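Sequence only, no structure available. Ideas?
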Amino acid sequence: MITRIAIGADHAGFEEKEKIKKTLDELGIEYHDVGTASSDSVDYPDFARQVAERVARGEAEQGLLFCGSGTGMAISANKVKGVRAAVAWSPDIARLAREHNNANVLALPARFVSEDEATAIVKAWFAADFEGGRHERRVEKIEPDA
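Reply:
I predicted one. Tokens follow.
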């Protein structure tokens, strides 16, 4: 079970991030919140990079990001070597991102999922593990050359 993560959001994802903290507490997952601290307008790449870098350095086992669509956060996080960020809008997508893609950062589309849906997505994400096997060689092909 994952026990240490980094979380971050822009203004559009701030409220969802704050709500999901309760779920993380219930799951016994320790988190470091890199911000933002309000719904005032901010730039999502600033927070995506902070979470992604913590994951890449091993300071966090995984990351959770929240923005309006999830896409901007995922694109930004994926610029950091060693990060495989996925946008998930359902528990099945989150589970498959972990099992098949060994994704280590989850980006949630706060404007498109309810609080209950976000909770189910996060729970599915943390309940899943990378399957390895045939998926391992595919994930290896994703990583940039050293």
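The beta strands are 4-9, 30-33, 62-67, 85-87, 105-109.
Hope that gets you unstuck.
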